[in-house]
Amino acid sequence: MKSRTLGKSGIRASEIGLGCWQLGGDFGPIDDARATATMQAAMDAGITFFDTADVYGGGSSETRVGAFVKGKSGISVATKVGRSADLFPTEFDYADVRRHLVESCERLGVETLDLIQLHCIPPALLQSGEIFATMDRLVAEGLCSHWGASVETIAEAKICLAQAGCSSLQIIFNIFRQDAVTDLFPLAKAANVGIIVRLPLASGLLTGKFTADTKFDETDHRNYNADGAAFSVGETFSGIPMAKGVELLAKIKPLVPEGMSLADFALRWILDHDAVTTVIAGCSKPEQVQQNARASDLAPLSAETHKALADIYAAEIRQHIRSDI
Ligand SMILES: NC(=O)c1ccc[n+]([C@@H]2O[C@H](COP(=O)([O-])OP(=O)(O)OC[C@H]3O[C@@H](n4cnc5c(N)ncnc54)[C@H](OP(=O)(O)O)[C@@H]3O)[C@@H](O)[C@H]2O)c1
Do 54 and 79 meet the contact criterion of CB atoms below 8 Å apart? Predict the structure, then answer.
């Protein structure tokens, strides 16, 4: 497993990280044993970067991560603040944000968070800018070592990367969401802001394991948010209608080199962009972690393959994304 440096934070992060939303049960139920086995598989595979949030599973993702990393060294944990009902969408007072960080510290069993990310907060708050002073203050107080932002759109990302204190941006980036290559990565590199890639597999679509008829557990956001009924439509299947995503895979599969799975291909394509620091593939079981980890050691895809994927995106995919990009 290779590692890269997360922008100005200096954190060394494994190229494949672990997305821990699943460990809170928001992709269907998961018990303590399976959550622990998934994190252990990540550690065994050399994964040193975990991503969670205060709201995942109502705090249970952070609690499980905290229990797992206790007494272990070498894992950086990024968490988030901003989507709990008492903050979102309007109240982001310093005291309230601070209280949430203290609670995350308690669940994670630390005094200082490695990285706290604003969690897709309203664009108006990013534009007004007061929240950035709050984040700088929380770093200065020692409650967190670094701050970054998880955002929905490239416009939001640009606001954040202009802040001197912003170390990282977490964005949706995958074969179904390619705009950042031209519109964001050059700016992020120039600002020395690390890129954390979420939804690398478009909620699993880019593994090729779903059909248009696949059904999900009622507690799974791929059931209740498939069309954006609960939160941003861009966060489930990257904003592509599931059946359309399954159909579009027919254009992509012929480009996958022999011996590579579609998931390997999707993850490798992301890692081929040097602005990317780490890819936080979400996993609901240990075998998925083991499979995803190997993308770090695969050879880069050819320039022809990159060109073909860019062309397919422009001609056939982008028009189907239902959220702002
Ligand atoms: N707003 C935000 O800040 C935000 C939003 C979304 C996600 N995130 C973070 O980003 C992480 C990744 O995003 P995501 O989990 O939504 O999307 P994702 O990584 O694109 O997809 C995750 C799903 O793909 C499937 N999968 C993963 N590896 C697989 C493999 N090797 N073979 C077959 N299936 C595989 C699993 O499906 P099954 O569950 O069906 O097994 C898993 O639940 C999250 O865990 C979370 O930490 C942040």
Answer: yes
Boundaries of domain holding 79:
3-320
Quick one: pLDDT at residue 266? Answer: 98
What residue owns the CA closest to ligand 1's atom 21?
203
Mutate to test the pocket of ligand 1, among 83, 288, 290, 298 (most ligand atoms within 8 A of CB): 288
Helices (H), ranges, 162-261: 180-183, 185-191, 221-224, 242-252
Q: Confirm whether 325 is domain-assigned.
A: no
CA torsion through residues 260, 263, 269, 274, sign = negative
The whole-model pTM stands at: 0.98
Give me ligand 1 centre to Cα 201, in Å.
7
Q: Which atom of ligand 1 is closest in space to residue 220's alpha carbon?
A: 39
Count up the domains in the chain and report the number: 1
Q: Does the pLDDT of residue 113 top 90, yes or no?
A: yes
Confidence of residue 179 (pLDDT cuts 50, 70, 90): very high
- CA 104 to ligand 1 centroid distance, Å: 22
CA of 74 to the centre of ligand 1 (A): 23
Give the length of the chain. Answer: 325
